[in-house]
């Protein structure tokens, strides 16, 4: 039994969360409402299985997500499909880029050392030098090992880091669920370039390089827990550059990748990170959710001088970490996504009153906040309620009821 | 019930006589001294009135028997006096102070300690630990005293003193050979002994014993009784619930008969023995 | 009947010796594992530090729990609640005051860490009081349910958006909702060393350590020293609780565990004793929580799921409730074998058999086993899922212990609740009865003698 | 609605609590186990021929099949649902008997706390074993069921077919148990055993038989409750039962341990508290509110609201 | 006339010769956990006989009773009833062969009413025998008065009567009574003993443990003295009462 749906509620809903709880949440939503609200969801919900799991075609839902809008997106998609026989999911291209750039930096640094790799990150990523992408990653590694300068052009974006270690430009896809095919389809892509699309920030001028050694890299992503569904394809994507290098052995280099599971939980994440530290990994691709990324960076990466490059942690707080420049990410900050969402809500969906439902963690809290600010300040919209929900509940009827009710309840 | 109600009036007169006798027995005071006074105690459970206006006094330094048919309310009276239950009405006075409704530990600390009809030993503690627990106001019972270096030596000293007494009492009750045993492994009778010994160690002025000899082997019972008399002569006061009439008649100075929750009569054993009502209600003609 | 003759009796140094022995064995195993995994010296030290950290944390927690359950018989399954309150209060008191634009959403009162820790312990103790006052009269299993519900209430409160931020003494503070709090203040080790003026000396030592670990030795040294610090706390907890237990105070607690009415009837104010014991235990749990989480740099409410409480219980039961030695040992074994062990095991397997592709689901894992009796995918999947199976194993260990060794790993320990040994004092003449005769009772004895004289 | 599930599952907990004298913390995972077994059946029947059998048996682990895609629902695939209910009950019975035989029986004479701790072990083992087999992801199990909308003064309320199914099944089962216990000697024997096990043994009550009967009734109800819970809420994950457990405890305690009507009423009260409290307090506290109600009851009337009313 | 315990019990004053033995316990070793309490205990009860066990606290009297009823850990020896070996059988079987047992403590169901307690006494029958219940009420009128009261709220003595009543519901051939008079008021003690006499006269054999030893020995046919988990004396009740040594050691002089 659900109430609401009557007059007085918002025209639109923003639902920020992850698929695991999203399934229950949307089920409860569809049994409490006739589906007349326009719903906007961000990256976290982009999972093709949602309509099947929810038992509804979810036609009133529109999504945004950092796009795999890079120059080499197609190449990557092909690589992924060849390897795993499936379409790549959200943040897979960012994961690929994160690992690839770390390997390049490692090759250029010539040693498995965090501080050395950190200095090479921007030299490999930002413009200047040989253009490398997923298709010629192996050659790129060889060049880097020879001390050449590289400009990595990624699967997700051109991968240029700004002074915070964030991507200097970003593209956002607007997508919809495709219930027929258990997939999502992009309908439009919007690009944003920051003030410095080429990125900036401290960087080494040259790299010693070196051949015939084993590079190591850690992959710290959720195999289980709330983000299991998103994490699994990301882990697969992260292994592609590793395989590419190990198959070709450029300049006698090989890769030893250590995979650990964050279980989408901060404490498990930290202790998994500690075990990477013990294993002597100089750089890590991870972790996925901001709630885990922040403590893991603070507790394990920064003090142990390990480079952390998250492919998907989008929360604003990651930019502000006191990180001695060890923390990077290939996913753009929600500072942008919040803006995109507000714009889509207002202009594309033509909605002027909304409530947000957000997962109760860094990501949800900050994105909801950011969206609400932009939506009301720049688009004259009205935000009725911002309702937090906790992951793993067995029913969300009560939060939905609050979200569907009139202003300030 | 109605005749029970006016019974006490008659008894008060009775008691003055007895009191003189009692005072003589304790040999100290000339005035009569009643450490325990119970006045109009009432308690009911749901529909059943277990104690119904019980009024009596126990004279200092005596061994007073509390008898009555099963279900007369003896154990309940004990529970009311010692604070395990709160009375619906009535007062309990101990050493001149009103203790009605106080917590059991407060009452125990005033010097009135009881034993339980069904022995309640602390099963996973040894007999020794059971005994060491009993003495009141141990220094080490405050947290910081038992932990702080330095201060703890005081505690140690006191423990050593206590331990000697404990062993003496264990010897006396003939349970020294099971001192290291867990109390839970004792037999029915051994538990009763332990319970009595433990109560004694609290150094009470007055002991309330609820059927302490039920299930105790007669040989030992005899020995214990001797000890009770010894203690009584030292000035302890005993209130004893017991069904063994021979025991009551041969050992008590004074007997109170409880019937349906109120005092049917009281007096010396001889008086009780010949009291028609008592025979009717309790003794059943075979004394 | 008396203390079970156990292998432990033969270890030199008694209980302390045993603990040291177990710790040494554990470390040895870890070093060996690290060796197989190809850890560098730095990696070895780091893994030892991590291990020590968890040993310390679980030992502290199970000691504190032992005070509740082992001594007083209070069935507390809300441990995480007290830990959470300890950490959060410490955070609010210690976090620097709010500045707009910083990484932290909310600020704190900006007081020194030791004030924060004391406040945290106090708050945990006070929460203990609030729970205890009404709930201590309840049966053990009801208290269990009340405490676990309380810990969930605490977690929900910290999660709630309403308490995300509020004003306290004119400062913007709060619990941060689901994203938790960033603990942006000096870690405990630094605070301690600065407090005693050894910080510079310490930094010097860290530099000197470069001989062993050439690059950036600080986190390694930090980890090791912090581990030692935790072990120091464990020792302090142990000392405190042992003295508490072996005292008249502890005796009353034990009596309460057995039969509260009796203790009460003997003149002990049982409520007061229970509350004291409960609050002390809660404060220690709070402290353990603080020492566990403050160095992590951030704290989120969802850390404090009931699961952690059960971890502590398993640790205590492994070691044996009622025994302080057992608690420490249980904490160590739990941390080393059940908590950290599986990860090492998994890494070892992958190190020994590299390049194995494990199936991605149970279905793919089991079907070869069924159709062609090929167990390999299943085994791979098993190793791959060791994190989940780890919890299965914990469950099974718990069941096994309850069946076979409910008194814990050490067997039954008689930790007598008194300051002095309770044997018959020398000063007393041993006039019969204290020899180790097999008599069951004085009465029997009398009879036996009677019977003999008769013959 | 959730109250009904809680009440239904609570009966089993309440029975084992009073007869075996311990708080069974693995009860929640019996719920989950029942649900998984039942839903595997439902998937199998509903999806036979349309999807891989393995995937169906694993209830679509790893997103291999979706209940929504299979169009599962009480009206669309009634046979599959009924079979699921039956299997979930049967499986839970088998499971609880098996666990009892291997785990609880050898320590039957220990005190309640020993059993409680053991049951925590069982809970852990069971829960993560299920995670091992079925994976950790939450899956949607049903297609959106048809619903009717009712208009109330303050808005529309939708009642769907699964709400009604739950109502009917739960009421029927509760009635059934009531009759069973009232009409047979079993009920009295159960209470006698709850009172004093040794004595029950001495009077010739086959205590083991009573225990078995308890598990059979309690386990069956629990399994069905698990199935119905999933049918009603539409998603299934390995943690579902455990998350419900504390609420069930709250209900059982509220109603008075050992009282069946108590468990039902307690379930309804707790369900209502958790959903109605949203009107007065922030939704984040709705679960907390249910616990607070429970704690207050425990403190004020530890024997529960319905204690003293002999019902079994 | 004290005789060595074991020879006495086994060769037993012509006891062995009788062929109407109902209960025969031989060389029984039993205890709890791995703690042995009884060593080589022998005991016989003949048809319709009235036997009392006395002995000091902790002697193993209750343990003997419990062992007959299958409630202890059996460690050796055997128990035969009506020529059937019942060693190690479970209580629920033993009750079927015609033995009733009233334990020393905790012998009622506290939350069941008095009447329900009595009904439980006849649990193994399909229907509650109304006449048996009536007979119990006749014997213990207080039980009828309190038939709807919860047993746990009755006084110690009342509970004792209820427990007796419950055991009589099945009209057993042998009734094991563990200290039936403990805690009873004197008139009730007499009454209880009278009732036991009556029951015995009606043909039920009695095996009883009593601390009220003198009274018990006076009334019974035969008595055993147990000490330290072993037989010590066996003789007719009166003979034991007159034995100086027994009086001294076990009967308080
Ligand atoms: N459950 C038990 N576990 C361990 N030991 C026990 C248990 N019950 C009794 N004992 C021990 O067995 C011995 C005999 O006990 P039992 O109860 O048979 O004595 P009893 O002769 O009936 O004495 P009493 O007259 O005091 O009741 C005692 O030493 C007692 O400590
Ligand atoms: N908790 C209780 N609830 C209800 N009734 C009770 C309770 N306690 C005692 N009673 C009733 O109160 C009456 C007095 O009981 P009490 O135990 O005081 O008797 P007593 O004189 O000690 O008897 P006995 O000599 O048999 O031990 C009895 O009728 C008993 O049933
Ligand atoms: C994997 C993503 C859904 C993670 C999300 N963007 C976060 O920052 O938490
Ligand atoms: Mg009494
Ligand atoms: Mg006995």
Automatic annotation (TrEMBL), chain B:
The lineage of its organism: Archaea, Methanobacteriati, Methanobacteriota, Stenosarchaea group, Halobacteria. One of its GO terms (biological process) is amino acid transport. The keyword Nucleotide-binding applies. Keywords: Amino-acid transport, ATP-binding, Nucleotide-binding, Transport. Belongs to the ABC transporter superfamily. InterPro entries: AAA+_ATPase, ABC_AA/LPS_Transport, ABC_transporter-like_ATP-bd, ABC_transporter-like_CS, BCA_ABC_TP_C, P-loop_NTPase. PANTHER family: CONSERVED COMPONENT OF ABC TRANSPORTER FOR NATURAL AMINO ACIDS, CONSERVED COMPONENT OF ABC TRANSPORTER FOR NATURAL AMINO ACIDS-RELATED. GO terms for molecular function: ATP binding; ATP hydrolysis activity. Residues 36-285 form the ABC transporter domain. Gene3D superfamilies: P-loop containing nucleotide triphosphate hydrolases. Pfam families: ABC_tran (PF00005), BCA_ABC_TP_C (PF12399). CDD domains: ABC_Mj1267_LivG_branched (cd03219). This is Probable branched-chain amino acid transport ATP-binding protein LivG.
From TrEMBL, chain C:
The keyword Transmembrane applies. Keywords: Cell membrane, Membrane, Transmembrane, Transmembrane helix. Residues 423-455 are annotated as: Disordered. It is found in: Cell membrane. Residues 440-455 have a biased composition (Low complexity). It is a multi-pass membrane protein. GO terms for cellular component: plasma membrane. The keyword Transmembrane helix applies. It comes from the Archaea. GO terms for molecular function: branched-chain amino acid transmembrane transporter activity. The chain crosses the membrane at residues 16-41, 47-67, 74-93, 113-133, 140-158, 223-241, 278-298, 310-339. This is Putative branched-chain amino acids ABC transporter permease. It comes from Haloferax sulfurifontis ATCC BAA-897. The lineage of its organism: Archaea, Methanobacteriati, Methanobacteriota, Stenosarchaea group, Halobacteria.
UniProtKB/TrEMBL annotation, chain D:
The keyword Cytoplasm does not apply. Its main location: membrane. The keyword Lipid metabolism does not apply. CDD domains: TM_PBP1_LivH_like. GO terms for molecular function: L-isoleucine transmembrane transporter activity; L-leucine transmembrane transporter activity; L-phenylalanine transmembrane transporter activity; L-valine transmembrane transporter activity. It is a multi-pass membrane protein. It holds the Pfam family BPD_transp_2. One of its GO terms (biological process) is D-alanine transmembrane transport. InterPro entries: ABC_transp_permease, BCAA_transport_permease. GO terms for cellular component: plasma membrane. It is found in: Cell membrane. Keywords: Amino-acid transport, Cell inner membrane, Cell membrane, Membrane, Transmembrane, Transmembrane helix, Transport. It comes from the Archaea. The chain crosses the membrane at residues 28-46, 53-73, 79-99, 111-130, 150-181, 210-230, 242-272, 279-300. Belongs to the binding-protein-dependent transport system permease family. LivHM subfamily. This is Putative branched-chain amino acids ABC transporter permease.
TrEMBL record, chain E:
The keyword Nucleotide-binding applies. Keywords: Amino-acid transport, ATP-binding, Nucleotide-binding, Transport. PROSITE patterns: ABC_TRANSPORTER_1, ABC_TRANSPORTER_2. SUPFAM superfamilies: P-loop containing nucleoside triphosphate hydrolases. InterPro entries: AAA+_ATPase, ABC_transporter-like_ATP-bd, ABC_transporter-like_CS, BCAA_Transport_ATP-bd_LivF, P-loop_NTPase. One of its GO terms (biological process) is L-amino acid transport. It holds the Pfam family ABC_tran. The keyword ATP-binding applies. Signal peptide: none annotated. Residues 23-253 form the ABC transporter domain. GO terms for molecular function: ATP binding; ATP hydrolysis activity; branched-chain amino acid transmembrane transporter activity. It comes from the Archaea. Belongs to the ABC transporter superfamily. This is ABC transporter. It comes from Haloferax sulfurifontis ATCC BAA-897. The lineage of its organism: Archaea, Methanobacteriati, Methanobacteriota, Stenosarchaea group, Halobacteria.
């Amino acid at each position: 039994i659900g109430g609401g749906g009557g007059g007085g509620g918002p025209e639109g809903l923003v639902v920020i969360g992850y698929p695991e709880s999203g399934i229950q949440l949307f089920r409860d939503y569809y049994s409490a409402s006739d589906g007349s609200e326009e719903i906007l969801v961000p990256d976290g919900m982009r999972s093709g299985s949602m309509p099947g799991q929810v038992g509804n075609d979810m036609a009133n839902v529109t999504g945004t997500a950092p796009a795999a809008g890079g120059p080499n997106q197609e190449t990557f998609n092909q690589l992924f499909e060849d390897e795993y026989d499936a379409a790549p999911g959200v943040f897979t291209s960012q994961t690929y880029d994160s690992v690839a750039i770390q390997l390049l930096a490692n090759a250029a640094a010539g040693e498995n050392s965090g501080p050395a790799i950190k200095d090479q990150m921007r030299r490999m990523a930002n413009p200047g030098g040989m253009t490398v992408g997923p298709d010629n990653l192996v050659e790129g590694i060889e060049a880097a090992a020879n001390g050449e300068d590289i400009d990595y052009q990624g699967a997700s974006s051109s991968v240029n880091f700004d002074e915070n270690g964030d991507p200097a430009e970003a593209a956002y896809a607007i997508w919809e669920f495709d219930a027929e095919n258990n997939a999502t389809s992009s309908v439009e892509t919007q690009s944003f370039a920051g003030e410095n699309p080429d990125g900036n920030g401290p960087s080494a001028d040259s790299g010693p390089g070196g051949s015939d050694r084993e590079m190591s890299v850690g992959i710290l992503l959720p195999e289980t827990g709330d983000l299991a569904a998103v994490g699994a394809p990301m882990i697969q994507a992260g292994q592609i550059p590793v395989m590419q290098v190990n198959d070709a052995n450029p300049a006698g280099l090989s890769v030893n990748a250590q995979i650990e599971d964050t279980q989408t939980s901060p404490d498990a994440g930290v202790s998994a990170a500690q075990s990477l530290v013990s294993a002597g990994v100089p750089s890590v691709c991870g972790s996925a959710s901001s709630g885990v990324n922040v403590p893991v960076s603070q507790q394990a990466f920064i003090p142990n001088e390990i480079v952390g490059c998250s492919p998907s942690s989008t929360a604003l707080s990651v930019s502000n970490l006191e990180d001695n420049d060890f923390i990077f990410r290939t996913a753009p900050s929600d500072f942008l996504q919040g803006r995109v969402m507000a714009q889509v809500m207002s202009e594309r969906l033509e909605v002027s009153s909304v409530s947000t439902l957000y997962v109760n963690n860094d990501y949800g809290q900050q994105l909801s906040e950011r969206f609400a600010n932009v939506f009301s300040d720049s688009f004259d919209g009205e935000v009725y309620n911002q309702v937090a929900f906790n992951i793993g509940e067995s029913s969300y009827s009560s939060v939905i009821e609050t979200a569907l009710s009139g202003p300030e309840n | 019930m109605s005749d029970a109600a006016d019974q006490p009036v008659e008894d008060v007169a009775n008691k003055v006589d007895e009191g003189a006798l009692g005072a003589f027995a304790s040999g100290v005071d000339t005035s009569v001294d009643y450490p325990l006074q119970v006045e109009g105690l009432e308690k009911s459970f749901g529909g059943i009135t277990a104690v119904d206006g019980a009024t009596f006094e126990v004279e200092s330094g005596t061994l007073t028997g509390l008898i009555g048919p099963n279900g007369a309310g003896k154990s309940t009276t004990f529970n009311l006096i010692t604070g395990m239950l709160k009375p619906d009405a009535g007062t309990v006075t101990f050493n001149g102070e009103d203790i009605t409704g106080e917590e059991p530990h407060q009452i125990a600390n005033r010097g009135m300690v009881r034993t339980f009809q069904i022995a309640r030993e602390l099963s996973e503690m040894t007999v020794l630990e059971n005994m060491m627990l009993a003495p009141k106001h141990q220094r080490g019972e405050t947290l910081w005293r038992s932990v702080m270096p330095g201060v703890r030596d005081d505690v140690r000293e006191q423990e050593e003193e206590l331990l000697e007494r404990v062993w003496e009492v264990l010897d006396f009750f003939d349970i020294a050979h099971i001192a290291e045993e867990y109390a839970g492994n004792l037999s029915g009778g051994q538990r009763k002994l332990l319970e009595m010994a433990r109560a004694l160690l609290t150094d009470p002025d007055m002991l309330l014993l609820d059927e302490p000899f039920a299930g105790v082997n007669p040989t030992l019972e005899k020995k214990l009784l001797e000890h009770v008399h010894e203690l009584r002569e030292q000035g302890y006061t005993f209130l004893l619930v017991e069904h063994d009439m021979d025991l009551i008649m041969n050992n008590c100075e004074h007997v109170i008969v409880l019937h349906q929750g109120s005092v049917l009569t009281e007096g010396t054993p001889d008086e009780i023995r010949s009291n028609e009502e008592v025979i009717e209600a309790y003794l059943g003609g075979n004394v | 009947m008396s203390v079970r003759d156990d292998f432990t009796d033969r270890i030199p140094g008694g209980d302390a010796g045993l603990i040291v022995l177990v710790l040494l064995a554990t470390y040895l195993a870890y070093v060996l594992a690290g060796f197989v995994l190809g850890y560098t010296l730095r990696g070895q030290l780091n893994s030892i530090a991590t291990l020590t950290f968890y040993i310390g944390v679980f030992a502290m927690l199970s000691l504190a729990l032992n005070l509740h359950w082992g001594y007083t018989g209070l069935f507390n399954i809300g441990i995480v609640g007290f830990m959470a309150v300890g950490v959060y209060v410490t955070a609010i008191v210690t976090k620097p005051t709010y500045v707009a634009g910083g990484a932290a959403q909310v600020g704190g009162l900006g007081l020194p860490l030791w004030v924060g820790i004391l406040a945290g312990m106090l708050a945990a103790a006070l929460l203990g009081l609030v729970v205890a006052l009404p709930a201590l009269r309840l049966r053990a299993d009801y208290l269990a349910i009340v405490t676990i519900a309380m810990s969930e209430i605490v977690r929900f409160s910290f999660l709630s958006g309403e308490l995300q931020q509020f004003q306290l003494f004119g400062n913007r503070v709060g619990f941060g909702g689901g994203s938790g709090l960033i603990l942006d203040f000096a870690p405990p080790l630094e605070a301690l060393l600065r407090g005693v003026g050894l910080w510079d000396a310490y930094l010097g030592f860290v530099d000197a350590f470069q001989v062993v670990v050439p690059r950036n030795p600080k986190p390694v040294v930090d980890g090791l020293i912090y581990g030692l610090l935790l072990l120091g706390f464990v020792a302090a907890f142990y000392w405190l609780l042992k003295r508490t237990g072996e005292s008249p105070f502890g005796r009353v607690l034990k009596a309460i565990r057995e039969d509260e009415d009796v203790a009460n009837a003997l003149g002990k104010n049982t409520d007061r004793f229970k509350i004291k014991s409960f609050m002390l235990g809660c404060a220690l749990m709070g402290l353990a929580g603080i020492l566990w989480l403050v160095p992590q740099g951030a704290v989120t409410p969802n850390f404090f799921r009931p699961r952690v409480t059960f971890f502590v219980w398993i640790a205590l039961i492994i070691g044996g409730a009622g025994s302080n030695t057992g608690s420490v040992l249980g904490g160590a074994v739990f941390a080393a074998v059940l908590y950290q062990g599986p990860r090492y095991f998994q890494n070892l397997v992958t190190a020994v058999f590299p390049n194995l592709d494990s199936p991605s689901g149970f279905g793919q894992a089991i079907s070869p086993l069924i159709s062609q009796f090929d167990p390999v995918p299943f085994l791979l999947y098993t190793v791959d899922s060791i994190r989940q199976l780890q919890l299965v194993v914990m469950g099974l260990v718990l069941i096994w212990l309850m069946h076979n060794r409910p008194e814990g790993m050490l067997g039954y320990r008689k930790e007598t609740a008194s300051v002095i040994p309770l044997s018959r004092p020398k000063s007393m003449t041993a006039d019969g009865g204290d020899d180790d005769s097999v008599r069951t009772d004085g009465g029997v004895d009398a009879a036996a003698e009677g019977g003999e004289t008769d013959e | 609605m959730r109250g009904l599930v809680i009440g239904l599952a609570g009966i089993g907990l309440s029975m084992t609590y009073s007869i075996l004298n311990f708080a069974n913390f693995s009860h929640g995972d019996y719920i989950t186990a029942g649900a998984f077994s039942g839903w595997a059946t439902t998937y199998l029947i509903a999806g036979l021929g349309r999807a891989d059998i393995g995937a169906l048996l694993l209830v679509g682990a790893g997103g291999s099949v979706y209940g929504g895609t299979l169009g599962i629902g009480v009206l669309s695939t009634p046979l599959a649902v009924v079979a699921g209910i039956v299997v979930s009950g049967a499986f839970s019975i088998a499971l609880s008997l098996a666990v009892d035989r291997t785990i609880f029986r050898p320590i039957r004479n220990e005190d309640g706390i020993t059993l409680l701790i053991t049951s925590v072990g069982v809970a852990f083992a069971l829960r993560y074993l299920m995670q091992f087999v079925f994976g950790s992801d939450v899956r949607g199990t049903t297609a959106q069921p048809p619903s009717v909308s009712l208009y109330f003064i303050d808005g529309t309320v939708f009642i769907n077919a699964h709400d009604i199914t739950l109502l009917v099944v739960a009421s029927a089962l509760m009635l059934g148990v009531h009759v069973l216990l009232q009409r047979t000697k079993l009920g009295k024997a159960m209470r006698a055993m709850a009172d004093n096990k040794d004595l029950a043994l001495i009077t010739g009550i086959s205590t083991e038989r009573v225990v078995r009967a308890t598990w059979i009734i309690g386990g069956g109800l629990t399994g069905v409750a698990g199935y119905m819970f999933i049918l009603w809420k539409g998603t299934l994950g390995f943690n579902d039962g455990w998350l419900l457990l504390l609420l069930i405890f709250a209900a059982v305690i509220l109603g008075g341990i050992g009282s069946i009507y108590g468990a039902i009423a307690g379930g309804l009260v707790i369900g209502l508290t958790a959903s109605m409290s949203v009107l007065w307090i922030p939704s984040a506290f709705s679960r907390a509110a249910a616990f607070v109600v429970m704690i207050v009851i425990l403190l004020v009337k530890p024997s529960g609201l319905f204690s003293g009313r002999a019902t079994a | 006339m004290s005789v060595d315990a074991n020879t006495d019990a086994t060769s037993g004053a012509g006891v062995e010769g009788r062929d109407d033995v109902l209960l025969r316990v031989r060389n029984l070793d039993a205890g709890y956990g791995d703690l042995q309490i009884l060593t080589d205990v022998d005991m016989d009860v003949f048809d319709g006989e009235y036997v009392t066990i006395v002995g000091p606290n902790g002697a193993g009297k209750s343990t003997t009773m419990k062992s007959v009823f299958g409630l202890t850990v059996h460690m050796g020896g055997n128990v035969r009833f009506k020529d059937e070996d019942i060693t190690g059988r479970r209580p629920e079987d033993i009750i079927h062969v015609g033995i009733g047992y009233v334990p020393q403590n905790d012998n009622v169901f506290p939350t069941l009413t008095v009447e329900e307690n009595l009904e439980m006494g006849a649990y193994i029958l399909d229907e509650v025998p109304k006449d048996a219940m009536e007979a119990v009420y006749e014997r213990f009128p207080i039980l009828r008065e309190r038939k709807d009261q919860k047993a746990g709220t009755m006084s110690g003595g009342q509970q004792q009567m209820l427990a007796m009543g419950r055991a009589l519901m099945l009209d057993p051939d042998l009734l094991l009574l563990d200290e039936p008079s403990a805690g009873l008021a004197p008139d009730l003690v007499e009454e209880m003993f009278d009732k036991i006499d009556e029951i015995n006269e009606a043909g039920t054999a009695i095996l009883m443990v009593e601390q009220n030893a003198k009274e018990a020995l006076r009334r019974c046919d035969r008595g055993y003295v147990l000490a330290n988990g072993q037989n010590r004396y066996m003789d007719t009740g009166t003979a034991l009462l007159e034995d100086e040594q027994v009086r001294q050691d076990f009967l308080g002089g």
